[in-house]
Amino acid sequence: MSGRKAVLLVVGLVALLSLSAVAQADWILSYTSVGGGADAHLSFVNTSGVTANVLHLEFAEEVTLTYSLAIGGVLVPVAAVTGTTIDLAGEMVNYGEIYTIWEPVTAYPIYAQWLAGTTPVGTPHIGSVAVLGRLFGQGIAALRDANPAALQAAFDQFFADNGEYLAGLSESLGMDLATQLMPVILAAPAEGIENFFNTIIGMLGVTSLEEVIGGDLDFSSLFAALGF
Q1: Given this structure, which CATH class describes domain 25-126?
Q2: N or C, fewer C-beta in 10 Å, the chain?
Q3: What is the pLDDT of residues 102-117, one digit of tens each?
Q4: How far apart, in whole angstroms, are the C-alpha atoms of residue 173 and residue 127?
């Protein structure tokens, strides 16, 4: 397994262990641009409890980092300052902060995570259903590789917890979801599991993170299997 793939799988597990992340992270602060300018002012506070070395940021649109000021450490862009994924690396002490200015004014991350070395630390910020689905796939794939029996038991409980709801959904689709989908879950790569998650979410007509967590489908057994 490549180093990057291993890191992504760990990120997935950490995200799934932090369901509070689906709300706006309290370590990301947004400020009004002075004079109503066309840029976004964001501060990222390291509340992980440890010194972090990387701030990983993903955006739904292409953005440009035009200014940054670190307090409590030094973080600099790893590569380009324009794109949908920006990594800032260096060192940031616990409760250290980096103040940033971005273009356009709508810039706000859909995913943000502090890392110490290659290990995710603190609570991630997850800002879209698509990102949650991706991390769900990575986390489940990691659990399957580590403990397939626990994964099978978790999905057995998932289908039991949602039996009545999924029975109706299965009838309307003309297919038994457990029979059709479990072989995929037990054999598919993370991307295939992500597709399973997105399929279920799409069937439910869900469009927001709040609907995923507070909706009719109970994912608690899957999250519990990951230690939440």
Answers
A1: mainly beta
A2: N
A3: 999 999 999 999 999 9
A4: 30
